[in-house]
Design a protein that fits this description.
The protein is of the alpha+beta class and about 290 residues long. The chain folds into two domains: about 1-50 and about 155-285, no CATH class; about 55-125, Alpha-Beta Plaits (2-Layer Sandwich), CATH 3.30.70. It has helices at about 1-5, 20-55, 70-80, 95-105, 130-140, 150-195, 195-205, 210-245, 260-265, 265-285, and strands spanning about 55-60, 85-90, 115-125, 145-150. It has a four-stranded antiparallel beta sheet.
Length: about 290
């Protein structure tokens, strides 16, 4: 008798609106995957930005009386090139400085704009020179200059990345919680729809654990299939963004990498595990007060 009760079609298939539940879980898994990829991309972008900021410093040179801006910038670049911890120092002429400002200010005001003389310093990645060291070398050379090692910007970027990563993690947890709630609701609806079947099983000696196992298997397999669909859809979108954007993905602000696809691989298993736990909790809660079959 119990061997017949273990058939996969023991519970009626569409009694609890399972196709709709499958669609909801697939969408939620898709959104969870996007949140995970977005968080990973934001963290990657932040590390890339901070790495580039840490590898450079900018020096603003103010020419002294009787000295042209180009001459002062050239002297500063020559001075800084000989400092330990500096790989290269390059003075920016007006044309290069205008190219940096053009995306922000446009072409209209650039000809009349007083642009400071700048020197870009590329630091040794293994032992970079500090801002005080660069300032000391400039002062000893008789140059009036200010050194910006981008430390303030690095802190801002790191804080922004931490916020984005936390938001992505929160979104992932919220979506996972919504999927679990949907499974709990569907499991309880399945109990109500299959009450006659459950009572028949109880009268034939089926234990609560056996009945719960039927729902756990049902919703575990359903969630695994739905999670696979959601993760596969997110993987297709992620691959498309990666292919469209070249080496940095669609945008340098959120660089997508092929390794992000690895983050999506456990989603079907996580969805199945969450569904199994949620279904068991829901079923055992409803079966607990019953007298028969316990």
């Amino acid at each position: 008798m119990m061997r017949r009760l273990q058939r996969p079609d023991l519970l009626p298939r569409d009694a609890a609106g399972e196709p709709w539940l499958a669609a909801v879980i697939a969408v939620l898994c898709f959104l969870a995957c996007l949140a995970a990829v977005g968080g990973a991309a934001a963290d990657r972008a932040a590390h890339g930005w901070t790495g580039r900021l840490r590898a450079e410093a900018t020096v603003q040179v103010r020419p002294r009386a009787g000295e042209s801006g180009d001459t002062a910038a050239a002297r500063a670049a020559e001075t800084l090139s000989g400092v330990d911890g500096v790989s290269e120092a390059e003075a920016l002429d007006r044309k290069a400085a205008e190219a940096l400002l053009r995306p922000w200010l446009g072409d209209a005001i650039l000809p009349d704009l007083a642009i400071p003389m700048l020197v870009v310093v590329h630091l040794d990645p293994d032992a970079p020179a500090s801002a005080p060291t660069l300032s000391r070398a400039l002062a000893q050379a008789g140059l009036d200059a200010s050194v910006d090692d981008h430390s303030q910007w690095r802190g801002e970027v790191q804080r922004a990345a931490a916020v984005i990563t936390a938001l992505a993690a929160a979104a992932f947890l919220l979506v996972a919680g919504a999927a679990g709630a949907a499974v709990v609701y569907a499991a309880r609806a399945g109990l109500a729809a299959n009450r006659a079947v459950i009572e028949t099983l109880s009268l034939n000696g089926a234990a609560d654990g056996f009945i719960a196992g039927q729902f756990m298997r049902r919703y575990g397999l359903l969630a695994a299939a739905s999670g696979l669909i959601g993760a596969a859809s997110a993987a297709v979108l992620t691959a498309g963004l990666r292919l469209l954007g070249g080496s940095e993905g669609l945008t340098p602000a959120l660089p997508v990498a092929w390794s992000d696809l690895i983050l999506l691989s456990p989603v079907p298993l996580i969805a199945a595990a969450a569904a199994v736990v949620a279904a068991r909790l829901a079923v055992m809660r409803d079966l607990g007060p019953r007298g028969p079959g316990r």
